[in-house]
Amino acid sequence: MANDLEGIIEQIHSKLNIADIIGAYIPLKQAGRNFKACCPFHHEKTASFVVSPVKGIYHCFGCGAGGDMISFVMKHEGLEFMEALRLLADKAGIALSGIKGNYRHGSPAGRSSAGLYRVNQLAVEYYNAVLLASAKAAAGREYLARRGLNAESVGFFKIGYASGEWDGLLKYAKSKGVSESVLQKAGLVMPGKNNGFYDRFRARAIFPIFDMRSRVVAFGGRTLDDSLPKYMNSPESEIYVKGRHLYGLNLAIDEIRKKDYVIIVEGYLDLILPFQNGIKNIVATLGTALTIEQIRLIKRFTENAVIVYDADAAGEAASLRGLDLLVSEGLFVRVATLDKGDDPDSYVRRQGAEGLIKIVDSAPNLFDYKLTLLLNKYNPAHSEDKARITAEMLPTIKRIENSVLRSDYIKRLSKTLFVQEDVLLDELSKIKSDYSSISESKSAISVNRIPPAEKIIINLMMEEEAIARNVRTVLDIEEFASADIRRIVDVIYRLLDENKIPSGRKVIERIGDEGLSSIIYEAFEESEKLVDRRKTLHDCVVRVKRDCLARKEQTLTTMIKQAESAGDDDKLMKLIKQLDALSSERI
Q1: Domain end point (choices 105, 130, 153)
Q2: All residues at 6 or more sequence positions from 346 whose CB lies less than 8 Å from its CB, including other chains
Q3: What is the pTM of this model?
Q4: Number of neighbouring beta carbons within 10 Å of residue 530
Q5: At 517, which CATH number?
Q6: How far apart are CA 119 and CA 349, in angstroms?
Q7: Mapped to the 3 state alphabet, what secondary structure does 438-450 carry?
Q8: In CA terms, which of 352, 364, 560, 576 is 20 to 30 Å from 221?
């Protein structure tokens, strides 16, 4: 049955052109080999919605919507997968007799991801049922009630409870036919003694974490007292990468667009209590510093952000780095600080939603917020402190793209510190614009930092099978510098091994990762600029090989210096021979 479904999906894509399907709903204008339009999923004046018939995908660079023709029809018509499939099958003249059931849209070959979504959904149902009905969850129900959550919020956010049993979820899942290996891949169980397993979450309130499509990708568990660790999150998995999700974003999108700003808080309850009281344009970072991916998710829906900090977190270096990242990505940032001892959920319980909104509305912009912090920390009457304030303020100003704003902030800093503007501008010019070290998160990788040659290569590989097979013969996965590109290339190579055409549609479906999919979406226009595609491919392959060789030479050079310092002559000679051998490979 699965193979029949896969075959039908392939027939639909081979018989129908995605530009024709989408063009029946919205007016498309040809732009090279692609088509452009104003996005039908959000209001915009400048066309940022692109359709690629070659890759079989569409993407909006404004709101981030993307997928294939099936997902477009589902989203535009408000249909379930099988309903959209039947509609397109009718257009293609394909019979669907014998296909039954409600299938999740995605590549049947990528069923491991679908299996993780299913087991996570099973876990949600289990934890929620325990919370609502089990005598063992009395403490959990009392805790949530004490924190002010009502029954509607518990149901809406699918909150649950993990009892103190070592294998409560494990037994339940196995009774439903779920294997221990799948539970382990989902991060729901951990290996124990004698090749056994036990539940990861025990004696904790459970908060499911959803992606933008409202699929459960992970869980957070909070203790009911002050025992440590207070919070425990799922480990990273095939469907969950820390730093690429924002708690509550799937529920907040419409309200964020409507109000044109987002409120960013830290934890589950910091979000749930305001949401319960009517503040819907709110997301939570789950206790981590903001990453590039999270910020770009926000920017799909608004360019205005208000961060709400409690007094303890307000001046932390990690918090300020996150704010600078927001500015670097072109967002307008304001910062609201609560009184000591308050956080958003306790403040709303005491002052109501109106009280929190009042603080949000009066929040100062990032410049004023940061300058106030520094003036409280240092004494501007002292030259050394004046220099420290300048050193911390100028990098933030440097990240502001708007020239008018940047000029105004320089003037204001000049007046505050009694330092001439030209002196500040001179110091500003010394600051490098490379902020690659701002975020320490592995997942906070900027698409713009991916080598251009590598982006062009994956674009061309997803356009022509012959190119993909040619690249396969000359480039190993390890020769690509970007870890994200290596993961994409690995999928392309596996599709080739299965004798399948590695189109953009298939690669995105197989990957099942929003972060990597966004790289493909954001990069797929690159090839439109190419004049001689074959020559460009050759040049890019040569560049990737040269860069890989340079990285290897740098590593060996470093090891040689270490061997010299350690006086290890044998190792030194081996390393020098390796370096000589590498040099002979230079193209």
Answers
A1: 105
A2: none
A3: 0.60
A4: 16
A5: 1.10.860.10
A6: 35
A7: CCCCCCCCCHHHC
A8: 352
